[in-house]
Design brief:
This is Dihydropyrimidinase. The chain is of the alpha/beta class. Helices cover 28% and strands 23% of the residues. Strands 1, 2, 3, 4, 5, 14, 15, 16 and 17 form a 9-stranded mixed sheet that branches. Strands 6-7-8-9-10-11-12-13 form an 8-stranded parallel sheet. Helix 5 packs across helix 8 and helix 8 (214-231) packs parallel to helix 9.
């Protein structure tokens, strides 16, 4: 057995100083005040001065993904290693059923890419690019395989579904308790605006945000809200980036729509001035949706603090600046969309919101709520006897600078170069095995596939602590 000693345990009932006992892949005991004797433990880890969290969960990643033009820079091996170094013990990646393929075939392919290679645990959403009778008939097989969340797109011609098919997807997954994650951008408007902006002579990275204005997101979110209301199904707005989009969500919540909201660090830290960096450096930030106006950033920061945002993910989709993104020199439409972030999310958020949010809030946003929403709770997302031994021992006293020079993501830049971070994982355990120490990998690959059940409501900020 392992003992994590003398830390501040972030438990469902609130923070408490004490010890955590791990036995194999499970938490054996949570001991307020500490164990009576350390005799009998195989290993003892000093957590003094640290917060002990249930391992963080990043429920939006794209590892080892073929886009039709290129592979992402991070494989499951490199991406989950980087995730663990930053304190994330589980990712949920987007497997994709491309047109002409089936969901079982897509799931088998993503298992082929991930199985046996991962430092952190991994589950899969299933993105649906073609909806027909065969796809519909395969939905029960997805639930049986532990895939209880799905994704559709309002943008990208090779991925998006028409509204009537979107409604049918919602109605089909609802009886099993499934949730639909949706990329909310109006694809027709984006396609048209890209042509207009390019034809007007704007060819550099700054053309990207110009062709994807906030209204494109807000309209698509509003449309999704009405489809969700019509179907009665649960939906998850992924990578919310705009104040207008948040308004549409809040209006839908007032009507009783069952909606969860995800945002990402890039929309809380960056704004659209990043695209003006010289020498094509603005291409680093070409992702969809793009970083927005300072006003949007401020509104989303407030929403994170007041609880309007339920989960924080990264949309980690890494492409190298040199050899991949630079294929779009002279035409912003050819820049691969996506950016890295799986390693740095916990440090970014805990630094940026150190004065507004406490350890329970960080736990709720990055561990408990993702586990609840996506069917991993109470096995994950809490420190309690019987839960999985995925643990992040977070040292808030460590000051360090985020840089491509010290990251483990297999990409040649970070959007957060020079960010002065406060806090780093001292120890990260995945299934009870030490996977990272002081931000460096141990070389272990204890990550396992996580089959998921139907999810539940996220915990809101006004719910109070859970009574054990």
């Amino acid at each position: 057995m392992k003992l994590i000693a003398d830390g501040i345990l972030v438990t469902p009932a609130g923070p408490v100083r004490g010890d955590l006992v791990l036995d194999g892949g499970s938490i054996a005991d949570v001991v307020p005040g500490g164990v009576a004797s350390r005799d009998g433990f195989d290993e003892v880890y000093d957590a003094s001065g640290c917060y002990v969290y249930p391992g963080f969960i990043d429920a939006h990643t794209h590892m080892q993904c073929w886009t039709g033009m290129d592979w992402t820079a991070d494989s499951f091996e490199t991406g989950t290693r980087a995730a663990a170094c930053g304190g994330t013990t589980t990712i949920v990646d987007y497997a994709t059923q491309d047109r002409g393929t089936t969901m079982p075939d897509a799931l088998a392919e993503w298992h082929r890419r991930a199985d046996g290679t991962c430092t952190a645990n991994y589950g899969f959403h299933m993105a649906i690019a073609e909806w027909n009778n065969e796809t519909k008939a395969d939905i029960p097989a997805m639930f049986d395989a532990g895939v209880t969340s799905f994704k559709t797109y309002f943008a990208y011609d090779h991925l998006r579904l028409p509204d009537d098919q979107m409604l049918d997807v919602l109605e089909t997954i609802r009886p099993g308790g499934g949730i639909l994650c949706v990329h909310c951008e109006n694809g027709d408007l984006v396609d048209s605006l890209q042509r207009r902006v390019f034809d007007a002579g704007v060819t550099g990275p700054e053309g990207h945000p110009m062709s994807r204005p906030a209204i494109c997101e807000a309209e698509a979110i509003s449309r999704l809200m009405y489809l969700a209301e019509l179907s009665g199904a649960r939906v998850n707005v992924v990578h919310l980036s705009t104040a207008l989009g948040l308004e549409a969500v809040e209006a839908a919540k007032a009507r009783g729509v069952d909606v969860c909201v995800e945002s990402c660090p890039q929309y809380l830290i960056l704004d659209d001035t990043c695209f003006l960096e010289p020498d094509f450096q603005g291409a680093k930030y070409v992702m969809s949706p793009p970083p927005r106006k300072p006003h949007d950033r401020s509104v989303l920061q407030d929403a994170l603090v007041d609880g309007s945002i339920d989960t924080l993910a990264t949309d980690h989709c890494s492409f190298n600046l040199f050899g991949q993104k630079d294929r779009g020199v002279g035409d912003f439409r050819k820049i691969p969309n996506g950016g890295p972030g799986v390693e740095h999310r916990p440090a970014l958020i805990q630094t940026l919101f150190a004065d507004e949010l406490g350890p329970e809030d960080f736990c709720r946003l990055m561990s408990e709520n993702p586990a609840r929403v996506f069917g991993m709770y109470p096995e994950k997302g809490r420190l309690a006897a019987g839960s999985d031994a995925d643990v992040c021992v977070w040292d808030p006293s460590v000051a360090w600078t985020i840089s491509v020079k010290n990251q483990h993501q297999a990409v040649d830049y970070t959007p957060y170069e020079g960010f002065e971070a406060r806090g780093m994982p001292r120890y990260v355990f995945v299934n009870g095995e030490l996977a990272a120490e002081n931000g460096e990998p141990t070389g272990a690959k204890p990550g396992r596939y996580v089959p998921r059940h139907a999810g539940c409501e996220p915990r809101r900020v006004d719910d109070g602590p859970e009574v054990p």
